[in-house]
Amino acid sequence: MSYLTPKERLLIPTYDNDVYATTGRVVIDIDACNGCGMCVKICPGKALFLSGDEKNRKARMEEVFPQCMSCNDCAAMCERDAISVAVTYDFGYFFKPLHHGPLSPPRKFEE
Amino acid sequence: MESDPVEKEPDVNADWNPVEQVILERRSVRSYKKKQVPEGTVRRILEAGRFAPSAGNCQPWKFIVVRDRDMIDEMERDVVRLCKLVKLLMDWRTSPLGRTIPLLLTRVSARLLPNLLHPIPFGAICLVADGKLKVFHGSPTLILLLKDKRGVSHPDVDIGCAGQNMVLAAHSMGLGTCWVGFVMLLKVGPKWKRRLGMKYPYTISEGICLGYPVGNPDGMISRETQEVEWFEDGAKKTVY
Predict the structure, then answer these.
(1) Most CB atoms closer than 10 Å: which of A52, B1, B30, B75?
(2) Which chain A residue's Cα is nearest to B225?
(3) Rounded distance between C-alpha atoms, residue A49 and residue B130, angstroms
(4) Residue A59 lies in a domain
């Protein structure tokens, strides 16, 4: 089990400093994306947007500090499975995640 | 009889039981159709909440159902107005008050309220203030969960149990839900306190949007595994 150091406990980071904070990040399979925009519509952090002309519209992620909370709602919504979370959010110091392991879909285990 | 020599791709979703299936596939829904949910269905969902466990069977929840479009819109407007005020005072990046004072205010407030001013809700406040993020997502029905402060032990936990029961029941019926913590801003000022009967011992705790989802937002996803300390037979191990 890991804990916070006294310094980490005292340091509440401001939110847009990428020196110690990482936001969530999704990867979009541009070939599979059909630009329907459902992920953009439902993203709670408005971290996604549509770009490109009418025939070639694709979802993309904001480059500068996207407010992605790695909820994966976009992945669940996408009918073409073109999108998934690659990096989960970590604001560092006081807000640093302590007991999280790697990403995994629901699992079953042997009896 | 011999089994089929051609092995079929195993369906990983096949052998979750129906309860697990609903739990694992539930996602927060942030886009709703205008179509209203039948009254009987909402009442049935409230029944799921009524039968949630609570400390000492104290049932410290009071449900308020709002199905009045104008009233939901009015709540949304008032929440947005408050978010605009918070953004004006505290968003050092955009505030017309300059950078120093808002940044100082944010730093002090985040120390006093580290949960409410966590970067995620802080970002959401700014998005709501800018009109980019909806509060109730256009849902036709809103269930408010009020807490009876006199509840046994930890009434907030009981509210969570009742709410999650309702959310899971709703998803099992093909409906969508989203928890809305922003309803706590309705506590600010006398207007909604009076209208929603929020006087001692009642206080607003959470809100749940309810409606028919646009598209198919439910489904299984990946999520972080959790470190679990496991004590057994005099030994300890860590599993994920």
Answers:
(1) B75
(2) A101
(3) 16
(4) yes
Is A101 a member of any domain?
no
Give A12's contacts (C-beta < 8 A, 6+ positions apart).
A93, A94, A95, B107, B110, B111, B114
Residues from chain A that touch B216, judged by Cβ atoms under 8 A, are 77, 79
Domains of chain B as residue ranges with CATH = 24-67+140-211 (3.40.109.10), 74-129 (no CATH)
- Cβ pair A89:B124 closer than 8 A: no
What range defines the domain where residue A81 resides? 17-95
Which of A46-77 are b and which e, b meaning 16 or more Cβ less than 10 Å from the residue's Cβ?
Answer: bbbeeeeeeeeebbbbeeeebbbbbbbbbbbb
Q: What is the pLDDT of residues A5-32, one digit of tens each?
A: 999 999 888 777 777 888 899 999 999 9
Per-residue pLDDT tens over the stretch B138-149: 999 999 999 999
- The predicted-structure confidence for B63-116, as pLDDT tens digits, reads as follows 999 999 999 999 999 999 999 999 999 999 899 999 999 999 999 999 999 999
Give the residue among B153, B159, B139, B142 at the shortest CA–CA distance from B202. B159
CATH number at residue A32: 3.30.70.20
Interface check A42 vs B, CB under 8 A: yes
Q: What is the distance between the alpha carbons of residues B26 and B176, in angstroms, rounded to a whole number?
A: 8
Dihedrals phi, psi of B125, to nearest 5 degrees? -60, -45
- Provide the number of structural domains found in chain A: 1
Q: B118 vs A95: CB contact, 8 Å cut-off?
A: yes
Residues A40-99: pLDDT tens digits?
999 999 999 999 888 889 999 998 888 999 999 999 999 999 999 999 999 989 999 999
A70 domain residue, yes or no: yes
The residues on B that touch A, with CB distances below 8 Å, are: 12, 15-16, 20, 24, 27-31, 92-93, 103, 106-107, 110-111, 114, 118-120, 122-124, 127, 132-133, 214-227, 229, 240
Cβ of A95 under 8 Å from any chain B Cβ?
yes
Question: What does the alpha-carbon distance between residue B87 and residue B130 come to, in Å, rounded to a whole number?
Answer: 9
